[in-house]
Amino acid sequence: MIKLRTEIDWIEIEITILGKTNLKAMRKAVAEATGVESAYAEVMGCDANSASVFRFRIHDPNKFAGVEVALMRLNQRFPFALPPTVTAVEIALDDYNKGPEQVADWYYGLSKLADDRNHRLYRDFKGSGEAIPRHRESFVRKIADGYQVGIGNKGADFYQHGYFKQTDHNKQALPEPEHRARIEVTLRGEQLPCVTLDDWANFKFEQLA
After folding, report:
1. Residue 186 has pLDDT above 70, yes or no
2. What whole-number distance in Å separates Cα of residue 93 and Cα of residue 6?
3. How much is the pTM?
């Protein structure tokens, strides 16, 4: 069984529709198109009640065909004025054989860093950030306790994030065989290798190794 796997955690897409609608209606349409009840979507503009440009995310797109199906459904509800574009992507590397110690080893072994100075441990609440321990054993214990590693700013064009994954993106507990060490890379703006859906469909992810 393959225990080391690379996948797209989520892909963010921008659409421009003919006419205008409100954010609530678009979120409902995105939820129906993707099959995710609490789908993420945002309006690109100052008026959430009347807009034509939106961004939304598709989580865990196992195959690119799934992205195309979601866009086809969305286009039927709100016809597109322009071809959709990719504005951000998060790519994950999972090791199902390893635990928190692998997260620490990945951190120590990174040859390209999103930021040379902004490295931290944090939990999922404001004010939880703290410095990464100098000693590996302390570092591994923190990761095992639920701390995550962040390199750079979350909203930057290039962000790295490592943790021991025990829940899904809805914060629901995963079965123990699905627990794994994970490192994620988020790319936006100038760091994106391509922006069109056709280019992403044929993209060779080993280029990001």
Report:
1. yes
2. 4
3. 0.85
